[in-house]
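Cont'd.
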Amino acid sequence: MKTIQAIGEFGLIDRIARRIKTSKNVIVGIGDDCAVLRYNKDKYLLLTLDMLIEGVHFTLKARPQQIGHKAIAASISDIASMGGVAKYAAISAGLRPCLSLDFADKLFAGISNTARRFKVDLIGGDTNHSAKLVIDVAMVGEVEKKKLVLRSRAKCGDIIFTTGTLGGSIYGKHLSFTPRIKESGYLVRNYTISSMIDISDGLAGDLWQICKASRVGAAIYENAIPLSPRAKTLSSALNDGEDFELLFTVPPRQAHKLLLKKPLWLKITRIGEITNRNSGIQLIDKRGRARALRLKGFRHF
Ligand code: ADP
Ligand code: MG
């Protein structure tokens, strides 16, 4: 019997996607950070769903406020990666009956504080009992049509950038990160961003998603990758999940302008270039030698 594990998370999603036909109201369905839906003359509606499960995305050792923060911030991060703004969220919670009321209060305080901070209205949800704590967020956002950024428009020669620093998120950042909505807003207002994704499965895996969607290759430079203070190795910066930084590509001339004019608060690093599809994804070492980038990022199955 063939199992889900044999085809993996992305194999399964591809399999689901192949069997679905959507109406013309769906501008982008399965396969990007958010679904993109027809909305009005100037804007598209964005929809993203993210489920956080105890033992997978957090443990009960985390502070309940942090768990609540992470649930909302992860969805805002997906909206940011489309160039949009987050508007509304509905929260479904599967709660262990034995959890204290204090825990539940703090969990929902974490959710509502982060929602307020990012101007997201909480509009409903669903509550059930569950053997493990589960929080599922459905978030709606908006994006101006002209500012929509997909995973699939990277072109050969485009420059690859990432925000912030990468790796070692498990030591704390995965519970306290700031979704890069301000950075995304600045980028899409001022530059042509040819593709963008938020790094949830590790730089290597998410770069692979951009390359796959855009049908291109990439070359990234080992010594250019911004290691976070908690990332002990390059491999950790390439493969650890849940950085929630933005990985994006910019046409060369625009990239030049961006590097010259970027404001001080915008922490971005140029890490490589988009190449021809046939070159695959290459990691260039300090001496200029190229090797194929292997994927070791987090996998659900
Ligand atoms: P992200 O890490 O950005 O949240 P995912 O890797 O979870 O994105 O999902 C990738 C794409 O697959 C998204 O478009 C998402 O909507 C879609 N997807 C994931 N799981 C399912 C599912 N069970 N049914 C349909 N679409 C799914
Ligand atoms: Mg994402």
